[in-house]
Amino acid sequence: MKTYYQEEEPRQGRGKLVRIVGWGVDLVAVITLAVFVVMMFGTKLTMSGRSMEPVLDNGDVVLLDKLWYNFSEPKRMDVVAFESLEGGSKTYIKRIVGLPGEQVQIKDGVLYINGQRTELPETVGEIVLPGLAEGEICLLEDEYFVLGDNPDTSEDSRFTNVGNVHISQIKGKVWFRSAPFARLGFVK
């Protein structure tokens, strides 16, 4: 019987070591997954200005999905974050209204895509100033036309300082408002 107990002690010690190493591996895997999820789906941006009211207010904190457009193309009415052409120092948040290869024009406050009247979500205010879109704008195969939901206060594709947005400028899709807590929810 002594032999039995003498052999069992080293096995119990090895079992504890295996469990500790297993927990360590699990912990590293969970931390790695959490960092990946936060980096891809949880990048925080703070809305600056009133250009996306009433959907997003000045100071709202939103989450940006950087991975989404690796698997699908940006779609009309997606709310996206993109870098300015001026060195990427400024990040804008706007709604895509014109897709690659389309012709965009704003006449009498109405958006036309390829000559057809295009309805905007009811959250988008009246477009008083057509800017560059007074004449027809032809988007290249890698360009998008963006518009703020509050066009009177929005710097968007209607103006030369923003212009058409190249796919390489788009940082990701704005998908969730995380602050203020009272307005927590998905961005549409």
Automatic annotation (TrEMBL):
GO biological process: signal peptide processing
Bilayer-crossing regions: 20-42
Protein's cellular compartments: Cell membrane; Membrane
Stated name of the protein: Signal peptidase I
SUPFAM superfamilies from the UniProt entry: LexA/Signal peptidase
EC code(s) of this entry: 3.4.21.89
Gene3D superfamilies, per the entry: Umud Fragment, subunit A
Active-site positions on this chain: 51, 94
CDD domains the UniProt entry points to: S26_SPase_I
Top-level enzyme category: hydrolase
